[in-house]
Amino acid sequence: MTAISQKQPHPALDENAVEVAYDACAAITRAASTNFYYAFLTLPVEKRRAIYAAYAFCRLCDDIVDEPERRKQANEELELVRRQLETSYSGEPSGPIWTAVADTQRRFGIPQHYFADVIDGCEMDITTARYRTFEDLVAYCKRVASAVGLICIEVCGYSDDDAVGYAVDMGIAMQMTNILRDLSEDAENGRVYLPQEDLERFGYTDAELMNGVVNDNFKALMKFEVDRARQYYESGERLFPLLDRRSRACPQAMFSVYRSLLDRIEAADYDVLNQRVSLSGVAKLTLALKLWLRSRIPVLR
Fold this sequence. Notes:
Low-confidence stretches: 1-11, 295-301
Order of helices and strands: HHHHHHHHHHHHHH
Radius of gyration: 19 Å
Strand content: under 5%
Mean pLDDT: 89
Structural class: mainly alpha
Distance between the termini: 26 Å
Largest sheet: none
């Protein structure tokens, strides 16, 4: 269980350097224009800056494995990231992202292995292009998504240890949504995240996916995966009452955006191979604002 109160910044970190570091992480987050940015705006300033730091770290790891020109040296770059994480936690960060991560850790007490799990997940994108079973895929989702959720709840603050399990399930649900939405893009990069056992079960092949074939077997497979993801959303939704009230609008907004994407996949008759399923920026901002206002309304007693 984490206390709602926060840890104090480490005295060895220069205050001006910390401010510059957080500004740099905020700029990285804004430039990425992700589903998360509008949700982050709902957080109190100190917590928002911490989440910017976590996002900038994740963006750094993702870019190493996703940018084609960097893939040849991806293992070496991720090993460097791992060493920089070590030095940041030992009090000697180098560069803006690492200064922000070091300060965030000291304010909120985030376990180092949460960040390390993200690196491990990105390494799987280098070594693994197929997942045999759903259990194999879940292991990947826990590293690249659930670990981020665990970082977030340490920043938000929670009152019950059950929050940890719910955050893990929320991460699995959101990553599964990403996978379903991005099937075509990932296939172009030679990656098929859907479990091979599921493709076999529904009589759909890698070759058909690579060729953008949308048939009854594909739709049945997609319905199965959408229904499976919804089960994880149902569990993840139990997280919100356990979070600090003034901070819960952020994860609620992310949850709502991604669950809405799942609904849109279903509404598109599961055809994600010939169209990009997304929400508009206005829709995301409106949703985040609505949740933020709700978090500010005093609870009636």
